[in-house]
Design goal:
Distance between the termini: 33 Å
Mean pLDDT: 92
Strand order of the largest sheet: 1-2
Number of domains: 1
Length: 362
């Protein structure tokens, strides 16, 4: 398997843009548009786009397993520090900006900066950044699991059980959907989603790795593989597009998103499909690095748009939905890119330099 799959990075970028689109319509622009407008229709069509978060969890598990294969000797302490540096600086910057300029909650800021939101320890389940805390703890859990169970088959069995229980808890509690609340008194559905999603990504990475090993020995079916992978790619993309953007044709049971995206991820990792060959470009994959900052900084972007655009140009916004939505997504993207270069990238580089200097001194 290649060290870097640009097609997957690009898909991560597209998912970030799609979730920005969803949040614009569901959490931000509606107070500034008239009733019975096209915005309300688009909002209703994209109700299920909230489930895009499951795709991010699956991607995180896939990348986690891929990274562990190369750095299995890393200690739990060093891994925790790495995840902290990867997630916390942008999250901290976001909450400081929200607290100072947009009336953010002081206590919500504390809980989020301690990675405690939506893990069953706080009553507040709201906010766009809710998924970061469950992702952090799920990452630590799976690292510990990989360290404790070194036999791949046994580990995959345990992960499979976790995936089943995590998704089942959500499907049963929400009747085919996903939630963030605590059910049965002790089960955080948000944390269950993170564990199940990351576990699914890990299992599909293992499946992909096994298929790559098998293909090294048998190259006679490359043509068949290309046809199969292309068919799965196109079918999965069609299912996801319908689910996210055209609710009338979507399946009410949102587990279909997990199935479709996992299969899409598998085919992209194999690298035989027509979609993979079209988008596996370095310049497209480069965009994927901005996904986290774009996602986290959404509310700041929407706050800026509300003050300088939506609130001051209500007539234009009402009459030009396509231009307004496109411009709003681009502004959110630009804010994320700026924060990546000002906060996320320098933090990662500083941490890498500190690690390198420590190794030199020892």
């Amino acid at each position: 398997m290649k060290d870097r799959i640009y097609a997957i990075d690009f898909i991560r970028w597209l998912l970030a843009l799609a979730i920005v689109y969803f949040h614009i319509l569901h959490a931000s622009i509606i107070p500034y548009v008239p009733k019975e407008s096209v915005y309300l229709h688009l909002r209703d069509l994209s109700d299920y786009a909230a489930v895009i978060v499951e795709c991010f969890f699956i991607l995180s598990g896939f990348f986690f397993a891929k990274t562990f294969c190369r750095h299995s000797a890393v200690s739990m302490y060093d891994f925790a520090k790495h995840r902290f540096i990867r997630l916390w600086p942008v999250l901290a910057f976001y909450f400081i900006v929200m607290l100072v300029f947009f009336g953010g909650s002081f206590y919500q800021t504390i809980y989020n900066l301690a990675f405690l939101q939506c893990v069953g320890l706080t009553a507040d389940m709201h906010g766009i950044t809710w998924y970061v805390s469950p992702l952090f703890w799920a990452s630590l859990f799976y690292f510990a699991l990989f360290k404790c169970i070194t036999t791949t088959q046994r580990r995959n069995l345990v992960i499979g059980i976790i995936v089943y229980l995590g998704y089942m808890a959500n499907m049963v509690a929400v009747k085919g959907g996903f939630s963030r609340v605590v059910v049965y008194g002790i089960v955080s559905l948000a944390l269950a989603r993170a564990l199940a999603g990351m576990g699914m990504g890990i299992l599909f990475f293992e499946w992909s790795k096994a298929m790559h090993e098998q293909r090294k020995e048998d190259r006679a079916h490359n043509g068949v593989s290309a046809v199969v992978c292309s068919s799965i790619e196109l079918s999965s993309i069609a299912l996801l597009a319908i689910d996210f953007f055209y609710k009338p044709l979507a399946n009410r049971n949102q587990f279909i998103v997990v199935i479709a995206f996992s299969l899409l991820l598998l085919t992209m990792s194999l690298g035989d499909g027509v979609v993979y060959r079209a988008i596996n470009r370095k310049w497209l994959g480069y965009l994927g690095r901005y996904s986290y900052s774009v996602y986290v900084m959404q509310s700041v972007s929407f706050g800026l748009l509300a003050k300088i655009f939506w609130g001051r140009n209500k007539a234009f916004v009402a009459e030009n939905p396509a231009v307004t939505i496109f411009f709003s997504v681009m502004v959110s993207t630009l804010v994320g890119i700026v924060v990546y270069h000002l906060v996320e990238r320098p933090s990662i580089r500083l941490y890498a330099e500190l690690i390198q200097n420590r190794r030199k001194t020892t």
